[in-house]
Amino acid sequence: MGVNDTLLRLRAIGFAYPAGAPVLEGLDFDLRAGERVGLVGANGSGKTTLLHLVVGLLRPTAGEIEAFGSVRRREPDFIEVRRRAGLLFQEPEDQLFCPTVAEDVAFGPLNLGLKRDEVRCRVSETLGRVGLAGFERRVTYHLSGGERRLVALATVLAMQPELLLLDEPTAELDQSSTERLISVLDDLPQAMLIVSHDREFRVRLARRAVKLESGQCHPATI
């Protein structure tokens, strides 16, 4: 792969929360089209922080973020990034805010300006893909924790992003749902950056791994 295949290029990234010690210091990281990378590290090492920096929910205190071939600095720069990189939050409650499952999954595609008939088809197809066919009219907050996580994933997949940023995607999933999730993700062409404490999940999906330690990325065993 060449330079044009690089979706993400992070250089000398630094970040610290207000009145806190640095979380990231001089971090470098590259992700290319089609790659599946497991991101590992101790709790508090900055894994979720890194995902949020990529989509502009946080801004680095130092360094440069290049995504999809352009350097991203200001909010308008990250609007495009958020269309092309789908972030699955660690907590489904941070992603789901509509009364019904169908409304949650349709929200992103509608904001892209798609026609309602096309959105309905995309909602139905995406829910079927994650094993939730027929859930369109279910009330989201009445679902189990695992079901809410799958709906949250459906909201991301319905946007058809080029890059998936997955933050603990198997949390609260039983073995059957985890197997379904692995099957869904393994069939997708998108590049993935996967934060997960579930080693079996990483081994089955990721092709390489990096470890966040002392604010920097290091090659690691999946």
Description:
The chain has a six-stranded mixed sheet with strand order 6-7-8-3-9-10, with helices on both faces. The chain has helices at residues 47-54, 75-84, 101-111, 116-129, 145-157, 175-186, 199-205, and strands at 6-16, 22-32, 36-40, 62-67, 70-72, 85-88, 163-167, 191-195, 208-213, 216-220. It has a single domain, classed as 3-Layer(aba) Sandwich (Rossmann fold), CATH 3.40.50. Strand 1 and strand 2 (22-32) form a beta hairpin. The protein starts with 5 loop residues before the first strand and ends with a strand. The chain has seven helices and ten strands. By secondary structure, the protein is of the alpha/beta class. Helix 3 packs across helix 4, helix 3 (101-111) packs parallel to helix 5 (145-157) and helix 4 (116-129) packs across helix 5 (145-157).
Strand-helix topology:
Blueprint (H helix, E strand, L loop, with lengths): L5 E11 L5 E11 L3 E5 L6 H8 L7 E6 L2 E3 L2 H10 E4 L12 H11 L4 H14 L15 H13 L5 E5 L7 H12 L4 E5 L3 H7 L2 E6 L2 E5 L2
Parallel strand pairs: 3-8, 3-9, 6-7, 7-8
Antiparallel strand pairs: 1-2, 1-4, 4-5, 9-10
Helix pairs in contact: 3-4, 3-5, 4-5
